[in-house]
Amino acid sequence: MSEQVDKNLAERAKVFRALGHPMRLILLNLIREKPRHGQELAAILSLNPATVSHHLAALSNAGMVVSTKDQYYQIFSLVKENLAKTLDEMIYIPSAQMMDSVKEDAYKKKVLRTFFHNNILLAIPAQRKKQQIILEEIANAFEFNRKYSEKEVNHILVDFYEDVASLRRGLIDFGLMERSQGVYWRIKKPSDPLPESSLLTNKED
Amino acid sequence: MSEQVDKNLAERAKVFRALGHPMRLILLNLIREKPRHGQELAAILSLNPATVSHHLAALSNAGMVVSTKDQYYQIFSLVKENLAKTLDEMIYIPSAQMMDSVKEDAYKKKVLRTFFHNNILLAIPAQRKKQQIILEEIANAFEFNRKYSEKEVNHILVDFYEDVASLRRGLIDFGLMERSQGVYWRIKKPSDPLPESSLLTNKED
DNA sequence: TATTTATTTTCAATTTCATCAAATTATATT
DNA sequence: AATATAATTTGATGAAATTGAAAATAAATA
Predict the structure, then answer these.
(1) Cα distance from A171 to chain B (closest Cα, Å)?
(2) B129 and B194 Cβ atoms separated by less than 8 Å
(3) Which bases on strand C have an atom closer than 7 Å to a protein beta carbon?
(4) Of A52, A83, A114, which closes a domain?
(5) How far apart are CA B63 and CA A124, in angstroms?
(6) CATH number at residue B62
(7) How far is residue A39 from each of residues A50, A60, A66, A74, B8, measured CA to CA in Å?
(8) Residue of A19, A30, A86 lying closest to B83 (CB–CB)
(9) In terms of residue numbers, what domain contains A37?
(10) A196 assigned to some structural domain
(11) Residues near A163 by Cβ (< 8 Å), separated by ≥ 6?
(12) What percent of chain B has a predicted confidence (pLDDT) above 70?
């Protein structure tokens, strides 16, 4: 439940962050006039195309714009529905959920501080609740709607912790990722079931 | 005119940036329930008071909260009026002003790129229009609603450029700062008049 | 196939932000 | 005065964001 809010919270913050740059506000207004492609926007703003691409990616990740491909043009247009809310609505957390959310947040932060240092996992926690927290954190290194080979998965995981096999299995067990014939992909927030298995018990893969 | 928009743009972006952090969203919701002081908020969130202070300063600078002093408590409360707008309204720039704004922005960026490197002023431009741009940039290093001694002013300016006397005089001439008996303060955007004097002509101070 | 055009990704340099400890400022209490 | 409490500022450190050059993709066209 409070999970839901927390998740939401991070996502709301992401929207605000995406809007928190003057150049991106100009981009949105140019796109509002009519859908445009990156090259055009870069020309208008006399900006490096790569820079525009970065900005558009941020806006796209936050759901403020969508793009469709037309020939070799990527045409960006505004998602007006997502701009209809007031700041107030974007910010609001029902007070019933507040304390849960706050406590959850404080607990998570404590666990992450304990088990991570400089983005490196010091050890795999013994408690499943804590495993869940650290695995959710690690899962964020993977994008949604993308396939990863096992090699790619390992490459990402080894930066966190040497025992990539345990991490990989944990991500699957906790429903954060799925695998089919050697291909992995991230899963869109499961309904938070604690799995039977623990990362510290059955070690085979 | 397009100045007006640009200025606005930066300010709007600042509001979004202030809202672009999960912790600050929680802070706003806690403050919404009832006005609170920093210590209380820090305790609830098990956060260092200094951290809370920084967050509240960001929210305050963006106009999302105000504070009143009561004994030695600084009580923060929500500015609901500023949360009533939709994202759309916050973002919108009338298309008439768009092109002006864009051109202005591109020009400014070009001038700043030419005359600054790593936040250091390479030279004082000869044209007053460009002087204005670089001085406005430098003026941002000073806060509003604060007094600075000449020593403090110099200390800030010397990081930009050795000839602090010229910069100081420029800030005054262009109406970006005012001085009275050795005390300086920043001025709230004048109506952009180009002064008669140029930084490169009369050099006495 | 080779070349052009648009876009994205990767990498590196730089800047800005987040966080907390320590020092400082301001007010209240003894 | 000395002590206690709240808040802010400063400094250090790590994390994240911005930017653009260069390389990699992808589609169109000669």
Answers:
(1) 25
(2) yes
(3) 5-10, 14-23, 26-28
(4) A83
(5) 43
(6) 1.10.10.10
(7) 10, 16, 16, 9, 26
(8) A86
(9) 2-83
(10) no
(11) A124
(12) 87
Give the residue from A30, A78, A88 with the most B CB atoms within 10 Å of its CB, the best one to mutate. Answer: A88
Question: What tens digit of pLDDT does each residue of B140-165 get?
Answer: 888 776 778 888 888 888 878 888 88
Please report whether residue B197 resides in a domain: no
Q: Mutation test of the interface with chain B: which of A15, A19, A36, A64, choosing the one with the most B Cβ atoms within 10 A? A: A19
In a domain, B195, yes or no: no
Q: For residue A110, what is the nearest residue in chain B, using CA coordinates?
A: B46
pLDDT over 70 (residue B191): no
Per-residue pLDDT of chain A (205 residues; tens, 9 = 90+): 444 555 588 899 999 999 999 999 999 999 999 999 999 999 899 899 999 999 999 999 999 999 999 888 999 999 999 999 999 999 999 887 777 777 777 777 777 877 887 778 888 888 787 888 888 888 888 877 678 888 888 888 888 888 888 889 988 888 888 898 888 888 876 444 444 455 544 433 3
Indicate whether A10 and A39 sit together in one domain.
Answer: yes
Q: What's the whole-number average pLDDT of chain B? A: 82
CA nearest neighbour of A186 among A137, A131, A146, A132? A146
How far is the C-alpha of A149 from the C-alpha of A24, rounded, in Å? 34
Please name the residue that has the structure tokens 């300016």. B157
Which neighbouring-strand residues pair with A70? A73
Q: How far apart are CA B105 and CA B110, in angstroms?
A: 9
